[in-house]
Amino acid sequence: MKGRLKILFIFLLAVFCTISSAQVKIRLFANQAPESAVLSVTEGTYELNLFNGEILSVFKNEPVIITRYNGKLAVKKRNSKGFVCDSLILKGKTGNDSFSLMMNGESHLRQNYSGDLQCLPDLGTLVFINISDVEKYISGVVMAEGGAGKNLEYFKTQAIIARTYMYKYFDKHSSDKYNVCDNTHCQAYNGFSTDTLLNKATLETRGLVILDKDSSLIISAFHSNCGGETSSSDDVWLSGQPYLKSVVDPYCITSRNATWRKSYPVNEWLSYIRKSGYKGNIENPSIFNFHQDSRLTDYKIGSLKIPLRTIREDLNLRSTFFSVFAVGDSIILKGRGYGHGVGLCQEGAMEMAARGFNYKQIIDFYYFGVLISDIKNAVALP
Ligand SMILES: [Zn+2]
Ligand SMILES: [Zn+2]
Q: H helices of 21-93, where?
């Protein structure tokens, strides 16, 4: 009985945490190593707790400078004395609080965030952690990763994808003091969105995620343009997911990133191919010709096979979906699409939304046999 009660308690605790954890901790400027930053309140009022007995109120137009100082933080508000502390937290007081943050160093970009902010020194840099409402974070991710699409159903699709990704990888930084970082290692996030259509799309899909047939969160992969056919995940990552199958996509083939072209002198191409094991010569460059009408996995010259994903990586190509033509002294690569090609094709999804498809139809088109459901119906998160 005691054991059962314990299990029930753990279960209730898990349910409670799921419901009450509508917040996410995001490490900001994670791929930089900021030494100092200027913070300004843009909405509401904040309280700055320095954990040394000092609690300061911070209002609009009162910039606060935070600098790394002898392994600690030095903090100074305009027109007041400075303080040294081990860490700090800035907490919003009105429920609708936001601030801007500008790092020193290479980019003097000022970005806007809502919610609270923690700061601590770590290994020669400052760590800034934004504690944000989940849905505000999601709309910021869609703004950063959604591309040029400006349609409600497209924004809803991207919001569901971003939310699925966030929950699936919520523990990616579990050894750190936050859930996600703000660069593409997790998902790009440059602060909250002020786009009303995008924010509406996020709120109208609040809590929705994509589940597979076992109610697990899917790997919600997406890319810019598939070139007319998406890739199967086992061809790209060597690990198959039943919902990441190849689909023929008629919607993206006239979009911005539908085609690309690159040319190499024959000798340069030969020396690259030789590095990959080719032993022949180039009496007739047409031996390099290769056609991909639908997606293949290898480039073939005689009996030699080179994985297309290796060539894409080595030569920094936009996609693996290309054909090769020898023309005079040149080798021309005629390519289709942009990105790994797995999962949802963004430019195809934009076009589907423009033609009147809704987010459910768009998600069903690119992910095979999935279910759109509230996060509370997902089975145990990792
Ligand atoms: Zn990350
Ligand atoms: Zn496509």
A: none
Residue 97, SS3? Answer: coil
Q: pLDDT tens for residues 123-137?
A: 889 999 999 999 999
Q: Which ligand is nearest to the CA of 231?
A: 2
Cα 275 → chain centroid:
34
Cβ neighbour number for residue 2 with a 10 Å cutoff? 6
- Ligand that lies nearest to the alpha carbon of residue 338, given by its number in the listed order: 2
Q: How far is the CA of 187 from the centre of ligand 1 (A)?
A: 7
For 172, counting Cβ atoms within 10 Å of its Cβ (0-12 exposed, 13-18 middle, 19+ buried), the class is middle
3-state secondary structure of 45: coil
Distance CA 302, CA 95 (A): 67
The answer to whether residue 353 scores a pLDDT higher than 70 is yes
Q: What is the DSSP letter of 218?
A: P
Model pTM score: 0.89
Ligand located closest to 351 CA: 2
